[in-house]
Amino acid sequence: MQLLGFLVFLGVAAAEDGLKGWLRYAPLTCSDRCHSNLPSGIVTFNTTTTSPVYVAGTELQNGLQGIYKKNVQVTHKKCNTASSVVVGTLDQYRQACGAVSGIPDLEEDGFWLSTKGSNVQILGQNERGALYGTFEYLSMLAQGNFSKVAYASNPSAPIRWVNQWDNMDGSIERGYGGPSIFFKNGQIVQDLTRVTEYARLLASIKINAVVINNVNANATLLSPTNLEGVARVADVFRPYGIQVGLSLNFASPQTFGGLGTFDPLDASVIEWWSNITAQVYERVPDMAGYLVKADSEGQPGPQTYNRTLADAANLFAKGVQPYGGIVMYRAFVYDHHLNETNWRDDRANAAVEFFKHLDGEFEDNVVIQIKYGPIDFQVREPVSPLFANLVNTSMAIELQVTQEYLGQQSHLVYVAPLWKEILNFDLRIDQKPSLVSDVVTGKRFKRKLGGSAAVVNVGTNSTWLGSHMSMSNLYAYGRLAWNPSDDAEEILQDWTRLTFGLNQKVLDTITRISMDSWPVYEQYSGNLGIQTLTDIIYTHYGPSPASQDNNGWGQWTRADQTSIGMDRTVSNGTRFSGQYPKEIAAMYEDVETTPEELLLWFHHVNYTHRLSSGKTVIQHFYDSHYTGAQRAQGFLDQWEALQGKVDPERYEHVRRFLDYQTGHSIIWRDAINNFYYNLSGIPDEGQRVDHHPWCIEAESMKLEGYKTYDVTPFETASGAVAIVTTSNSTAGTASTKIQFPSGTYDLAVNYYDLYGGKSQWKVYLNDRPIGQWVGNSEETLSHTPSIYLDGHSATRVKFRKIKVKRGDTLKIIGMPDGTEPAPLDYVALLPAGTLD
Ligand code: GCW
Fold this sequence. Notes:
alpha/beta; Chitobiase, domain 2; TIM Barrel; Alpha-d-glucuronidase, C-terminal Domain; 4 domains; six-stranded mixed β-sheet; binds 4-O-methyl-beta-D-glucopyranuronic acid
């Protein structure tokens, strides 16, 4: 990118709350020469205020005003005014200005952007494309990029959707950024301001449809009042070129419509749905289509009537066909009552087993929406083999901007590199190049439909997702949906400049920590393909490796005293590896050729199995968790070097999150390492696991008003024991005489921050207060809180550079609140540069 030297950047701007996302149009100053590059007029070819082309004109006006303080008038339909930006569809342009030459063919939603001639041309194949081109031009301006460009840009695929998992009561399934911007108390909200702002953000990343309600769908959305609400939402999205789609509950004809059945082949059911569809399209004539989760995790589906999934998908497909709608049918169909004692049982097999034999039986407007991996948005999964098993069926890949298994927006995890690994994977279907991106866009098998959908959990929080840094994932999703070959780091840098300005140090730092964040999270949460070792039964957030096994959900690790991993080979295991095309199947079948990052996904091996590094599996576990947690500490240090270079509000917000992550990465590290040490009995060669020389257990302190508490799972408390106050209204005190050599230490305190109260803790050294904090992370962080002492609620706070003398008394007073009994696990006194 060409950044021109004549730009002078303003100092750090006033506090920002994140609401504008990457569309801030933050001021840049530029010299006269720079000004001569700015347009002095805007011409748009549509005067209807609700048209995307009109919206484009307003955006340009706001952008030029915001970024360069340049007040530019919008006029309509006048052709070729020199040094203007001209925005419209190619057809509108032709009508106003006559023939155009030199513009390559544009596909649906595509655009032409030229800054080379006497004016800037932004011409879309349709109005949506013109708006996309406008946002792209504005993105250049906002990054101080005055390169002379002339290019056509076309989408990789027609389906570039987002899925909201918003419930009608206003809650959001897996939502970490506050309540829904769409729903409240069973209805669509009245004030749609936030929806408009969201529409802007989505349009700027070229998203063309949004499914507004949870796939675990509530049929009352189909009531006439709520459909009126949906129509209002669609009216808000339409000027931004975004269509609205709806998730359906398969049993609606019975539960909502009062029929005796929801059999997809029953005539009354077909009629009921067709009537509903007519009502929907009457109010929303450009409704994008339906999204269906059926026969999955307790949701009703066609299996109730022994009908096929194709019967179900086609029921809706035929219904929306006359209106040009499509049906996104989710491949996330599996039995969650599997039996782990059966060596062959494997949830990963489900999608291919359910869908492969139906290939070719789906109507043309059905798209099978497939999660990127065969299980569920884990930190590492192989590509779903279903992508290689449907040849005559359109597909879309399902990604998650929502960081459900990736730290729930409380941990920094930039997910685009993970998505890129999936999209770039070559499935070698029929022994021919078959990138996942080419399969899902429809290119590989010449399907007209295809693309991607991402689960997004924006809420009413001003940061949208609960944390500023997570917005890079939403931005990157749109970019990759449009062009899967975009580079994850370049996308990130565009986002960073747009979000935090042009300071080089800010750019470099955010690039480094974000690009490291997924590998680091993998290191401390679950590596070698064992999945995110989180609590899969409860919040999906903190560590709880035991929860993976001994239940029907099938996210198993099969860890026992000597060995670990799922044997998914054809020769001896669940036969999952055989679902891939020949060459890939052969690679995964053999432990020697399986990439090590997926070793335990495909093979069951001893803890003493040697990796290519020469390390054993168990030692690799120990080391990775230490390395990961260590690297996470560095995120905070690097961020803190940006003080004064980012506005104070966002600086402090991000700092607080990264500070929390440094602590929680240690909780992850110790929990996982303790768990496998306990299970295998194999000591850490580095003698770190279960050996914490700077740690003082809370239960070993002198306790008044505190009592010991056995924590479950045991590995989420040091020594398996914590302390809690004996009453929920009076303070407890834990004190100890320090036996370490006199010196300067960082003091870390591990405690539990439960949902249900805001306990207060105060730390004293010889009665001198040295620190205090409140257990209110349910309000200040983003992840799902826990009501227990466990790996989700375990938290660490740190006080730096405390001067301590041997024999000093350290005292912590904990004041309980509500059901939160001011729990404490341990303190660690860390000499400078030491990580316990
Ligand atoms: O991962 C699981 C989530 C559920 C979700 C489901 C799905 C909407 O834990 O919350 O339900 O996937 O994708 O349908």
